[in-house]
Amino acid sequence: MEKHILLLLILVLAIHSNACIAGGIHYSVIGMQSYMWREITFIVEPGYVVYAKLILEAPPVWDMSSPMSMRAEVYATEYPANTSGVYVVLSLETYTENGTVLGLAEHYLGYLNQSRRAISAVIDVYPGVGLADYVDRAGDILVYIEPKIRLITIRGSDWFIHESSAASPFLVYIEKSVHIDAIEVSENAVLVMQGSLLAEVSLSTKHTWDADAGIPPVRLEVYAIEASPTGVDVFVNLYISSNMVSSNYIGTLYKNSYIERNIVVPSDIVRRSCSLTSQLRVRVDLVAYAEDSSLSKTIEFSVNCVAREPRIKLYVREKNITVYSGMAVEVPYTIVNQALSAVLLRAVKVTGLNETVVQELNIAVSPGAEYAGSISLEIDKPGTYQLVLEAKVFILDQYRELTLADTFTVKVVNSLIISTDKTKLKPGEEFEVRINTVLAGVSAYIVIKREDTEGWNVLSRVPVSFPGVSVKLVAPEEPGRYFLKAYTDTGIGSNIIELEVSKPQISIKVSPTTIEADPDSPFSIKVVLSGATIDEVLLEVLRYEDLVGAWVMVPGIVVEKADGSATIELRAPSKQDTYRFKVRVLSGDEVVAESQEIKVVVGNATLAQNATTGMVEGLPAEIIPVQYLFVMIGVIPAFSFLLWRRFRGR
Q: DSSP string spanning 42-97?
């Protein structure tokens, strides 16, 4: 029955020269494998008909970890007697649902002639590089694999290629595997060099290259189906990222000969290239030379990179360092090279200070070795510094520079410390400054400045050595807040001490505070000061004058100084009365203290005052004087009469 249908199709299509028929679609699942087949009937020319049946064996979901299997059965149902043999090639084009072409693979199936009318071949279908890249980026997808049949005929020295129309594509669902980096990818092509060479070429490698784990070779297989009797020389050029990395003569091909080679990829070039990109573009140029002709075939593909950072580490061996200001400190570090290549340590620098400290080097560190070094720092200003140590290393097999970094802390303790025996001073007062230091053989300048000024004034210059020295200084004459510090001739500064220079609070005490004196007789007042001496100030005596309502200075006083106190000699007024005096203290033109009031009673001033007020000396204030009593007795009758008239009518 199938034969009759096939003959009917052949008769229909025989009207059109070089016509093609895509056979029906068949699908079945047996166990855990899917079996899909396609049929192609191909009319090469009148009287020459080829029938092909393709069976694809694949899992329901393909993870590309192993190849699919395709069996091809090809029959020459009609074959002219005067025709030489034909070479049968299977072409498989892979594309996505939206039409994006992912790759084209060509496989040689066999040879048909008058005596050999059938071919049965099994091929392994590996994922192409384009397919693996797409799945790696996009994840699970449905792809179409479209088969075609190509026939190559030879007439004398001329070779002719005939291609069928495409059959309905195979539909394969692909799942992205967690092991996609380890899958093997393959590119297949058939080379035709007119009259000299017909060969199948296969390139395969791993989808991902890891320079540190070892680069897998690019496997090249060449099978010469036809070749010039004198042989065809074949060369292979390998390019990575447009740079030729190797050129190899792989051998001479003769008819039915087979050559297999592993093209070694330089790991240092891959390591360097992978440090710049995550995917490498690889190109293989296959060049064939015959006696009078040549052919060049280019196969391009991409592989993923494992971009591992080189295992080169920088360590600061002391993370927390304490040092005195102005003293050099060594920061120890270690370079550990666990990479596969030697490195060149070019420079070490420290950042985080006002100026970057750089140490130029040129030290090679072999694989598996360490280098221990140190860099010197000198910090004058006390404080805690968070610093970064950077090392620049050149990786020899990658031809690139790498910057390593580690952090550490330096605490700078003051190496010049000053202290004073007092911080509150009087103008011109002597005080002592103590300079403590761990330094030796330096000169220290003691400087001072007032709070509201900019510049520092040098008070003294003294030689200083461990453990320190004391020096006597004199406070400024002008009151105010001052700052005191010291620094060495090498620029190391000390802590700052605040000084308060002020005039002391002056107070005065007088005695007695009540004095009785005869008119125009002398009397004295004793004065005691605190906060100043009698010699440092001026004393004045004041008397309150009722007539003008103010305190008036008393002229002609005599001050006698003795034992830190003074006695003021005065003369009492000639008029009998009670007077108020006080003493005030002047510093320059400024009044700095005043005493309490001093009461001076002159002559019979008390009796005169009582006569004026009606008081009798010696009587208590609660007893009413006699004159007041007489007045009250006279007023009582009049007051009684007024009350009688006011209330008599009631």
A: EEEETTEEEEEEEEEEE-SSB-SSS-EEEEEEEEEEE--TT---EEEEEEEEEEET
Query: Would you state the pLDDT for residue 349?
Result: 93
Q: Find the largest Cα–Cα distance for the chain.
A: 184
- Tokens 């075939």 sit on residue: 297
> What's the confidence (pLDDT) of residue 162?
84
Alpha carbon of 649 to those of 437, 636, 637, 640: distances in Å? Answer: 110, 22, 20, 16
Domains and their CATH numbers in the chain: 1-182 (2.70.50), 312-413 (2.60.40.10), 416-501 (2.60.40.730), 507-603 (2.60.40.10)
**How many whole angstroms separate alpha carbon 378 and alpha carbon 289?**
71
Q: 38-68: per-residue pLDDT in tens?
A: 888 877 766 778 888 889 888 888 888 888 9
- The per-residue pLDDT for 178 is 64
- Distances in Å between the Cα of 154 and the Cα atoms of 197, 254, 348, 405 are 12, 17, 71, 69
Strand order in the sheet with 565-571: 507-511, 522-530, 565-571, 558-562
Q: Residue 297 is encoded by which pair of tokens?
A: 């075939």
**Residue in 584, 583, 581 with CA at minimum distance from that of residue 599:** 581
Q: What is the pLDDT of residue 19?
A: 35
Sequence-ordered strand ranges (E) for 588-646: 590-594, 598-602
Angstrom distance (rounded) from CA 188 to CA 298: 11
Encoded tokens for 7: 């003959």
Token reading at 496: 């700052």
The residues, ordered by sequence, that sit 6+ positions from 523 with a Cβ below 8 Å of its Cβ are 515, 517, 570, 571, 572, 600
639 backbone φψ class: left, alpha, beta (φ>0; ψ -120 to 50): alpha
Integer Rg of the chain from CA: 59
Residues in the chain: 650
pTM: 0.49
**Is residue 436 within 8 Å of residue 467, measured between CB atoms?**
yes
Question: What is the token pair recorded at 212?
Answer: 């540190």
Q: Is residue 269 classed exposed, middle or buried when 0-12, 13-18 and 19+ CB atoms within 10 A define those classes? A: buried
Say if residues 336 and 409 touch (Cβ distance below 8 Å).
no
**Hey, is 401 helix, strand or coil?**
strand
CA distance 103 to 108: 17
The DSSP line for 290-319 is -SS-EEEEEEEEEEEE--PPPSEEEEES-S
**Rounded-to-integer distance, Cα 269 and Cα 55, Å:** 42
Q: What pLDDT score was predicted for residue 600?
A: 93
- Return the residue matching tokens 């120890």: 332
Prior bond to 46 cis, omega within 30? no
Q: What are phi and psi of 356, to 5 degrees?
A: -75, 130
Between the alpha carbon of residue 344 and those of residues 274, 281, 389, the distances in Å are 20, 29, 17
